[in-house]
Write a structure and sequence with these properties.
The protein is mainly beta. 12% of the residues lie in helices and 66% in strands. 26% of the residues are buried.
Length: 273
């Protein structure tokens, strides 16, 4: 009986093996490689945004001029009225172009932009400066700026997070005027192109095969400008009776927040295996 059971088991096992051998072999097709966005390539686009900044106006009374004969208290009151902080602000907009290189998720690039600027402010301060009252009319303005920056970022498929920094160039227009009740009238102004630096960060997203949109923040420092006052014709204290000289300086730093759109040249995707 035991021998019969063993024989039956062997027969069944042999039949199942033969049946399995006769079944067709099924192969599972490997999934196609997923496509990811490739940030490598050149691009060109435009931007628009808002800028706001700070400009501290400093006044030094030249002690080789007639100011040397005035009391320290009078000079300090004059300087206190003259020294003010201006906060220029306005719309900005311009064009940018650059090139990116991608290796793995890391993206490195260079970008240059040129922007028109409406950042400006005028401040009028009137106050007592015994024995008279004086009015100071001061302004700061930026008409344009440009930057050349490196970029380094991390790509998450069609989204790029990046930091950026480099050189900045822009014009700084400063002005200073004073009039007083006794007829003292002076004026000073400057329009100078300054070289500075900028740093910031942003996020860029590809919303179509060759189109991206970005939001970017930059902090920019254009240093300071220096200029000297001159008499307004008709001033009571005009030479040769006296020769008062004021030396002015204004620094200029500003923030920008802007939205940009870029068109990317070249293919938008590569294969991930």
């Amino acid at each position: 009986m035991k021998t019969l059971a063993t024989a039956v088991s062997l027969l069944v096992a042999s039949s199942l093996g033969a049946f399995a051998a006769d079944m067709p072999v099924r192969y599972t097709k490997a999934p196609a490689p997923a496509a990811i966005y490739n940030w490598t390539g050149g691009y060109f686009g435009g931007n628009v945004g808002y800028g706001w900044g700070r400009s501290n106006l400093g006044t030094v009374l030249d002690q080789t001029s007639s100011w040397a004969g005035e009391t320290v208290a009078f000079q300090n009151q004059f300087v206190a009225l003259s020294n003010n902080r201006l906060n220029p602000a306005g719309i900005i907009g311009g064009l940018q172009a650059g090139y990116n290189w991608q290796t793995g998720p890391s993206v490195f690039g260079i970008e240059a932009d040129f922007n028109g600027s409406g950042m400006s402010q005028r401040l009028i301060v009137t106050g007592p400066n015994p024995p008279t009252t004086r009015t100071f009319n001061e302004s700061i303005r930026n008409d344009w700026f440009m930057t050349v920056r490196g970029r380094a970022g991390y790509a998450i498929d069609t989204t790029l997070l990046y930091v950026t920094g480099g050189l900045a160039v822009g014009n700084v227009k400063g002005s200073w005027d004073v009039t007083s009740g006794n007829g003292y009238a002076k004026t000073a102004s400057i329009d100078q192109t300054r070289l500075g630096w900028t740093i910031g960060a942003g996020v860029e997203h590809a919303f179509a095969p060759n189109w991206t949109v970005k939001f970017e923040y930059l902090y920019t420092d254009l240093g300071s400008v220096n200029y000297t006052s001159a008499y307004v014709p008709g001033s009571t204290f005009a030479p040769p009776g006296a020769n008062y000289v004021e030396r002015l300086s204004q620094d200029f730093t500003f923030h920008t927040a802007r939205v940009g759109v870029n068109y990317k040249f070249g293919g938008p995707a590569v294969a991930r295996y």
